[in-house]
Design a protein that fits this description.
The complex is a heterodimer.
Chain A (H helix, E strand, L loop, with lengths): L7 H9 L3 H23 L2 H18 L9 H19 L7 H4 L9 H7 L2 H11 L2 H12 L4 H8 L3 H21 L8
Helix pairs in contact in A: 1-2, 2-3, 2-4, 3-4, 4-9, 8-10, 9-10
Chain B lengths: L2 H19 L5 H13 L1 H22 L7 H13 L10 H10 L3 H14 L21 H6 L2 E6 L5 H10 L2 E5 L6 E6 L4 H13 L3 E6 L8
Antiparallel strand pairs in B: 1-3, 1-4, 2-3
Helix pairs in contact in B: 1-2, 1-3, 2-3
The chains are: A mainly alpha, B alpha+beta.
C-alpha cells in the first residue's frame, strides 16, 4: 500500500508507534480543513494557525489511545473545537448565546443592497458567513466537512437533537434572508 | 394530512437535506427523504436550494488559505516535542563510520558525496546493521532515466543523517548530483501525479530543503 492510499486509521496506528512520517502525512491530509474550521470558529487566522498546529501535536500525543470509534477527521475536528473554545474562553471573548442565535443574521448591507451588488450565489455566501457561529458551524460541518448528524454531535459535544435544531434554524435563517433579498425559495 | 402536519414534515425534510447531500443519511431518515423527493413537487426545488448552500459553504471555506509554511513549522514543533530520532542499535564499525560521515554538515559532505556517486553506480547503498538510515543513492542508469524526479538543493547546514532518514521514510532516492550549485536529482517513486505532488510538497516543507524544482512527473493524472 502506498502512502497516498493508506487509511487514516492505519496512519494513526503508525503514529502510535512513533512514526513521524505518518503524522506528517496526516498533517498534509487534514491540516487545511482543520485550519479552515478553526478560522471559521475564531475569526482569527493567527489563532487558527497555532491551534491547528496544536491539534496535530495532540494527535502525536494521543495516538496510542485512539480507539477508532470515530473517523480520524471527526476526532481531529473535535480536538480543534475544544482547543478553540478553550483559547477563546481564556481570552474572555463573548460567545453568541441561543437567544442571539435565533435572530436574523446581521450584515453590513441590507439584503436589498447586497442583492444589487451580487447575484444570488454571492448573496447566499454572504448570508452563510453572517450566520451566528453555532449555526454556521453545523452548516460548515455538514456541507464542507461531510459530517453526519452523529459526528457533528461528537465534534461539538451536543446531543443529536440539538444538531438537528441548529441545522433547522440555520437553514430557516438563510431562507428568510434570501426571501428578504428577493429570492423566495418557498421555505420557510 | 393537515397543513400543520405537512409543514412539520417539510421542516424535518429541510433539516435532513444537508445530510442527504453529504451522503451521511441512512436508515429510516434516508428512506423518508427519498420518498419525499419522489412524491412532493416542491422537494426537488428544495434540493436545488440545498445544493446552492453546499456550493456556497464550500466556496467560503476554500477561500481561506492555510499558511504555506505550516508543515515546515509543524515539523519543527514535532521535533521539539519528540526529540531526535532514535539511532539503530547494534551497529558494526562500518555502520558507525557511515554514521560519522552522515553527521557531517551537508556543506562539507557534498564533495565526498559527489565522489561517492561518481565512483559507485550501484543498485542500492544500504547501511549495514539496521534499517534506521537506509537510503538508496542510485539505481541503474536505465532506471534513473525513467523515474519521476525533482531537483533539490539542500541548505548548507543540513545534516546528511537527517536527509537520509527522510529519504528512507519516504522511499526517495538520490539519483544524481550534486551539480556545481549543489543541486541533487531526487528520484520519486510515485505512480500518480497526485502522489508526486504530495512528495514534492513534503520535500519542500523540510527544514533542510533550500529549494525544490519539479522535474518529470508520472504519466498518470491520479
Amino acid at each position: 500500500m502506498t502512502a497516498a492510499t493508506e487509511t487514516d486509521r492505519a496512519l494513526v496506528d503508525r503514529v502510535a508507534k512513533g512514526d513521524r512520517a505518518a503524522v506528517r502525512l496526516l498533517f498534509m491530509r487534514h491540516h487545511a480543513r482543520v485550519y479552515r474550521f478553526v478560522v471559521r470558529q475564531t475569526g482569527s487566522e493567527m489563532m487558527a494557525d497555532d491551534i491547528a498546529n496544536e491539534v496535530f501535536l495532540e494527535l502525536w500525543r494521543q495516538a496510542p489511545g485512539f480507539e477508532g470509534r470515530s473517523e480520524v477527521s471527526t476526532w481531529l475536528l473535535g480536538i480543534a473545537r475544544f482547543k478553540a473554545l478553550s483559547l477563546l474562553r481564556k481570552k474572555k471573548e463573548d460567545w453568541i448565546d441561543d437567544d442571539d442565535a435565533a435572530q436574523v443574521p446581521d450584515s453590513a448591507d441590507t439584503p436589498e443592497v447586497v442583492t444589487m451588488k451580487d447575484d444570488k450565489a454571492a448573496a447566499l455566501r454572504r448570508f452563510i458567513d453572517a450566520l451566528p457561529e453555532e449555526h454556521r458551524t453545523v452548516i460548515d460541518l455538514a456541507y464542507y466537512h461531510g459530517q453526519s448528524v452523529t459526528e457533528i454531535g461528537e465534534v461539538l459535544g451536543i446531543p443529536v437533537a440539538t444538531v438537528k435544531t441548529r441545522m433547522f434554524y440555520a437553514r430557516k435563517k438563510l431562507g428568510e434572508a434570501l426571501k428578504a433579498a428577493g429570492y423566495d425559495r418557498g421555505w420557510p | 394530512m393537515s397543513a400543520a402536519e405537512k409543514m412539520s414534515r417539510r421542516d424535518e425534510m429541510e433539516t435532513l437535506l444537508p445530510f442527504y447531500l453529504n451522503g451521511s443519511l441512512e436508515g429510516a431518515e434516508l428512506e423518508a427523504v427519498e420518498e419525499w423527493l419522489a412524491t412532493d413537487p416542491a422537494a426537488l426545488a428544495a434540493l436545488g436550494e440545498a445544493e446552492a448552500e453546499f456550493s456556497g459553504t464550500a466556496a467560503a471555506n476554500e477561500a481561506i488559505r492555510p499558511p504555506a509554511d505550516a508543515l515546515s513549522r509543524f515539523a519543527k514543533a514535532l521535533d521539539a516535542e519528540a526529540g531526535p530520532a532514535r539511532a539503530p542499535a547494534g551497529q558494526s564499525w562500518l555502520a558507525q563510520a557511515f554514521n560519522r560521515f552522515m553527521a557531517v554538515p551537508v556543506g562539507v559532505a557534498w564533495a565526498a558525496a559527489a565522489v561517492l556517486l561518481a565512483l559507485v553506480v550501484v543498485q542500492s547503498f544500504v547501511q549495514p546493521g539496521g534499517k534506521g538510515n537506509d537510503f538508496e543513492i542510485a539505481g541503474t542508469e536505465d532506471d534513473l532515466a525513467k523515474m519521476p524526479f525533482a531537483l533539490v538543493k539542500f541548505k548548507p547546514e543540513a545534516k546528511i543523517s537527517d536527509i537520509a532518514v527522510f529519504l528512507g521514510e519516504n522511499g526517495l532516492k538520490i539519483a544524481g548530483g550534486p551539480t556545481a550549485d549543489g543541486v541533487f536529482r531526487i528520484a520519486i517513486a510515485a505512480e500518480t501525479a497526485a502522489d508526486y505532488e504530495k512528495l514534492v510538497s513534503l520535500i519542500a516543507a523540510q527544514p533542510f530543503a533550500d529549494a525544490v524544482i519539479e522535474g518529470r512527473k508520472p504519466a498518470s493524472g491520479g
